[in-house]
């Protein structure tokens, strides 16, 4: 049976480690701060990021990357996206030949505009043919509680995707496969932008119609950028697109959604970020997406308005008004033009 290292012990890393260990899979969870690793090993719980879930016997905890990674067949990286590169670089010397490397993070590296698998391909070239990404509507706490959901794992090598599907699937966690890594990663990252906007919408009391319209137009924007970047358009109708958008834009469990609500209540971004110990990837992804939109020449009006609210202190009411008052257009305009999948 496989032996797995989960790199990153936030809410999602801990949840994935619990899921695997509860299946009887030999699993180790890596935490970058030795004192926190020692706490978790002693308390058998992650009290900071996922309180209330006892670690099973098979779940090891370490702050030693060599111990975490050596002799492991599968390495799942679940660190904040802006930390992915440094973590991958640090673990590279210990990676076993033939190990499968999975990103379960949802973001874009700001300095390079790379997706996580692109970062991993650069830092772990030996594993280039065995890279994968996991995404979907997976609010950590619900998955940890054993509430049913689905996810999608992407790998260029279909056999690897199928292997990971078997590894990760449970009666409560149904995993699908795809070869569209680009689509899975962009869907997972870009939905966080829309989730912040949906939180602002909810915080302003704009209601269900507005949220539904926002999610749908957000999906159009994600699809435009994603297809321009080489993703299959239908991926965005799947779990890593529409599925994750609906979950994240509707749930108070989403940190991105919470951040949006707090912005609508008048809090400043800096204050909100300083008070959060969790990562709200959408803040960084908003900046990255605007640069990608420029690179590919696609329109992202929601992302543009959100950037004004996040980074320029723009009034959210004014931002919504400006979105509503844009020139009229056809619903499907610009959606999949330029997609290599549509002639
Ligand atoms: N929480 C969820 O529901 C969920 C679900 C799916 C995907 N994700 C994605 O997983 C990734 C991680 O999120 P999370 O929710 O597990 O984390 P989190 O927000 O709960 O906690 C942040 C984690 O990052 C760690 N960290 C901070 N600096 C680090 C560094 N330099 N090196 C290594 N680790 C560092 C912290 O110790 C902590 O464990 C994000 O990209 C997120 O979008 C989260
Ligand atoms: O809590 P968030 O906003 O980072 O979202 C968590 C997951 O991505 C939901 O699938």
Short description:
The protein has 15 helices and 8 strands. With 343 residues, it is of the alpha/beta class.
In angstroms, what separates the terminal alpha carbons? 45 Å
Q: What structural class do helix, strand and pairing data support?
A: alpha/beta
Radius of gyration: 19 Å
- For the residues shown, what is the average pLDDT? 96
Helix content: 40-55%
Strand composition percent:
5-15%
Write structural notes for this entry.
This protein is an alpha/beta fold and 343 residues long. It folds into two domains: 3-179, NAD(P)-binding Rossmann-like Domain (Rossmann fold, 3-Layer(aba) Sandwich), CATH 3.40.50; 190-324, N-(1-d-carboxylethyl)-l-norvaline Dehydrogenase, domain 2 (Orthogonal Bundle). The protein contains 15 helices and eight strands. The protein has helices at residues 11-22, 34-43, 65-69, 84-91, 116-123, 140-144, 158-168, 181-203, 207-228, 239-250, 255-264, 269-275, 282-296, 301-312, 316-324, and strands at 3-7, 26-30, 59-62, 74-77, 100-103, 131-135, 149-155, 173-178. An eight-stranded mixed beta sheet has the order 3-2-1-4-5-6-7-8, with helices on both faces. Helix 8 packs antiparallel against helix 9 (207-228), helix 8 (181-203) runs parallel beside helix 10 and helix 8 (181-203) crosses helix 13. The mean pLDDT is 96. The protein binds nicotinamide-adenine-dinucleotide and SN-glycerol-3-phosphate. SN-glycerol-3-phosphate (G3P) binds next to helix 8, helix 10 and helix 11. Keywords: Cytoplasm, Lipid biosynthesis, Lipid metabolism, NAD, NADP, Nucleotide-binding, Oxidoreductase, Phospholipid biosynthesis, Phospholipid metabolism. It comes from Thermogemmatispora tikiterensis. Residues 4-160 form the Glycerol-3-phosphate dehydrogenase NAD-dependent N-terminal domain. It is found in: Cytoplasm. One of its GO terms (cellular component) is cytosol.
